[in-house]
Amino acid sequence: MPSSARALRNATPSTHMAAKDFQDAFERVVTNASLVIKGKESALRLVLTAMIADGHCLLEDMPGTGKTMMARALSTSIDARVTRIQCTPDLLPSDVTGAPVLDARTGTFTFREGPVFANVLLVDEINRATPKTQSALLEAMQERNVTVDGQTHALPKPFLILATQNPLEMAGTFPLPEAQLDRFLLKLSVGYPDRDAEGELLDANKSTEAITRLGAVSSTAEILAMQEFCQDVELPEPVKMYIVDVCQATRTDPSLLMGASSRASISLVKASRVRAASQGRDVVLPDDVRALLGPVIEHRLILTPDAQLRDESVKAVLERILARIPVPLGVGVSESAPPLQTASSA
Fold first, then answer.
1. Which of 36, 99, 265, 295 lies at a 20 to 30 A Cα distance from 341?
2. Domain residues for 251?
3. In terms of domains, do 117 and 256 share one?
């Protein structure tokens, strides 16, 4: 494990990689984490996609579905530092970012880093923190640094915030505002495992927790190299304009009060490049875009009151939009485009 946050911040990509190297590294991490998280490979792939795309992920699901374990499994697989914040109404911003502490020996204040200085930060039940504390995460999520007393402190690389919230027990919580939701690259649901997967889960944890036996199969330097590779994955002009057309259509659809922002289209490009590379390609296809539309865009859209009264859903609106926007031809799209994946289908 890295010895300090300073060492983590100084991690740099080690070697240049090819598309096949990227695919091998991606599959290696997913396979290793699947030793602990059973039956949820698609969710693991999406969370790893968020990390490599240099974004953040919001998990909304019932308690005990493996949200915390997923963060631990992925961070262990890449030999990264993981920290956890359990959000409560009395949590202060300084409990997240850190604060100056008086050194009794020298009589001066030195900055003591908070839990945000990690590669993977698990923010458990983020909607139980007050808006003031939630806002302390905004700079970290967007700028990748923390400013305290006029001093800016860089966060480690790679850096992923994995926030969770439960759809039940909403009394006394503080729902995330749209501006903060928009900063999450992905939103998804882990869901309960099926019958066979739950049986495998019991076998894996029959003596000790499976996570305690998990080892590293990658490194933070390799993740940084994967991030660098994705910057050069080709985005053909027709695919780029397909993303633009979809996002533009959400802003004019009569059933939507708020459509996808420009940040949404940028996020969709980043995530699509990672998905393409994870399949051993160096070019984005329309299939990559369609497979990620739900997790990337769904949480950014708000239905109008009339649409809610008609029992419409964001998924249905997206499907209607996709039905009227032609898929680019001649850039490797499959004969039967993949169905729209939603945040709850991971």
1. 36
2. 233-324
3. no
